[in-house]
Amino acid sequence: MLNRLLLIIIFLVLNTFCYSCNDITRSEKFNKEIWNQYGSFDGPDRDLMAEDLIKTHRLIGLTNKQMLQLLGSPSNLGDTTKTDYELSQEFDSIDPISGKNLVIQFNKDSVITSASIEEWHKH
Fold first, then answer.
1. Contacts of 59 (CB under 8 A, 6+ apart)
2. What is the pLDDT of residue 76?
3. Do residues 70 and 32 make contact, with C-beta atoms less than 8 angstroms apart?
4. Listing from the earlier edge strand, what are the strands of the sheet with 112-121?
5. Rounded to the nearest 5°, which phi and psi values hold at 53?
6. Which residues pair with 120 in a beta bridge?
7. Can you tell me the distance from the alpha carbon of 53 to that of 96, in angstroms, rounded to the nearest whole number?
8. 3-state SS track over the chain
9. Residues 6-31, buried b or exposed e (16+ Cβ, 10 A)?
10. Tens-digit pLDDT profile for residues 68-123
11. In whole angstroms, how large is the CA radius of gyration of the chain?
12. CB 81 within 8 A of CB 57
């Protein structure tokens, strides 16, 4: 009886641990209002919404103007062929050492041709 109870407890602990590990790779539904709060104190983690944004919102084919209406101002301004939105950054004291960006490519008519998530690391 004691062995059976011990096995049940071990199973429950391992099961809880496995579910908490899955939470690390969770994602969130894209929400325009929350997306645009990025950068504010205690703002959202865009990284969790980016995958849903790419999969469920048809970015490819949108014009630059439509993209701005949906996503707000990008992280880099002025480039007519490529733009990016900061998703997340990790810091070493005050300097960023790694991060993720949503990178959007345009054709000559300012229409989105691709959207992808790119990671970067400081060397």
1. 53, 67, 104, 112, 115
2. 79
3. yes
4. 82-92, 95-106, 112-121
5. -60, -45
6. 99
7. 25
8. CHHHHHHHHHHHHHHHHHHHHHHHCCCCCCCHHHHCCCCCCCCCCHHHHHHHHHHHCCCCCCEHHHHHHHHCCCCCCCCCCEEEEEEEEEEECCEEEEEEEEEEEECCCCEEEEEEEEEEECC
9. eeeeeeeeeeeeeeeeeeeeeebebe
10. 999 998 887 667 789 999 888 888 888 888 889 999 999 999 999 999 999 999 87
11. 20
12. no
State how far the Cα of 12 lies from the Cα of 87, in Å rounded to an integer.
35
Of 60, 53, 105, the residue nearest 83 (C-alpha): 105
Q: How far is CA 70 from CA 2, 35, 82, 98, 107, in A?
A: 59, 9, 17, 26, 19
Please give the structure tokens belonging to residue 60: 């490819």
Residue with tokens 């990008």: 74
Q: Are 115 and 101 in contact (CB under 8 A)?
A: no
What are the residues whose beta carbons fall under 8 Å from the beta carbon of 110, sequence distance 6 or more?
A: 63, 64, 65, 80
